[in-house]
Amino acid sequence: MARSPKMAAYGEYGYVHLAATQATAAPVVPTGATVVNTTTTTAVASAGAATITPASMVGITLGRALAIYRGTGTAEVVTVTGVTSTTFTATFANTHSGTNTLVSLLPGKLGNIVVNNAGTSMVLTLYDGPPALAGISGPVGQTIAVIAIAAAGTTYRFALETYSQLFYTLTGTVGDLTLHYQPDMQG
Fold first, then answer.
1. Does 4 reside within a domain?
2. HSE of 115 in the Cβ direction (CA atoms, 13 Å)?
3. Which CA distances in Å does 133 have to 2, 75, 79, 151, 155?
4. Exposed/middle/buried for 121, CB within 10 Å: 0-12, 13-18, 19+?
5. Stated pTM of the model
6. Residues 6+ positions from 92 with CB-CB distance below 8 Å
7. What is the pLDDT of residues 139-172, one digit of tens each?
8. Contact predicate 152/118, CB 8 Å
9. Is residue 3 part of a domain?
C-alpha cells in the first residue's frame, strides 16, 4: 500500500526523546529543526504594528506565523511582516507585557511513539500547538491525545498531521519515550 503523499516516509521523521517531567506545555523540537522557541520582554502597548526584540531570532522569517503567550495579555497568533538581524515586526490585536513566549506554528507529522522505559504513572498529553491558544485561533491548542503510558516496549501508532507545531506535557515519574515527529519546515 502506498503512503499518503502528505505523510513522511518513516525514515524522514525526526526522533525526539522525552525523559523529563514537563508540566507546562512545551513544543516538540526534533534535533536540527529550525523552529521558533524563544521569549521576549518587549511590551506591545496597543493593538497594531509593533517591533519585537526576541531573545533569539532563530527561525523567525518573513511570513512566519508565531504564537505569543504566557505574558500579560491575551494569547494570539501573529504573522511576521518584517525582520532585521535582531528584531521582527508584526501586527498585534492585543497588548502584551512581561515575559512572553514566542513559538512558530509549523504543521507537522506525528508518527509512532515508542516507550523505552515506562516510568510510573506516566501520562503524555499531546496538543496541536500551544494549549494557551485553545479556542482563540481555530484548531490551534486543541488536545490530540492523552496517553497513560503502558509497559516498556509498547508502541503507540500515529499517522497524523498537526495544524501547528506539536506540543506536549509529561507527568508522573517519567521514564523515556521516543516520538517520531517531522515539522514541515516549509510551513
1. no
2. 21
3. 35, 6, 15, 33, 29
4. exposed
5. 0.80
6. 44, 47, 48, 49, 50, 68, 76, 78
7. 888 999 999 998 999 999 988 888 888 889 999 9
8. yes
9. no
